[in-house]
Amino acid sequence: MKIFARLSFLALTAAALLTSCTPGERGALVGGAIGAGTGALIGDGTGALVGGAIGAIAGSEISKNRAARNHYYGHH
């Protein structure tokens, strides 16, 4: 039960923090989390660190491109 409470608290905190982020920041956080998880599965702590860094950069750039591409439709 303690694990469920901790995970619930972590999920609610993450959701609250992500609501005030820009698309680039949100993409960096999500990409970093996915990259770190994948890196940890493939390798050790170094893999998680490298995967998180690469995922954060990729997630940020993908989100920025998506936001810029959809910017046109919001003003017409």
Radius of gyration: 15 Å
The helix-and-strand class reads mainly alpha
Task: Kindly estimate the percentage of residues that lie in beta strands according to DSSP.
Answer: under 5%
Query: How many distinct domains?
Result: 1
Note the main sheet: none
From the N-terminal CA to the C-terminal CA, the straight-line distance is 51 Å
Which parts are unreliable, with pLDDT below 50 for 5 consecutive residues or more? none
Q: How much helix, percentage-wise, in residues? A: over 70%
Order of helices and strands: HHH
Note the overall shape: flat
Tally the helices.
Answer: 3
Number of strands: 0
Mean pLDDT: 83
Keyphrases for this structure?
single chain; 76 residues; mainly alpha
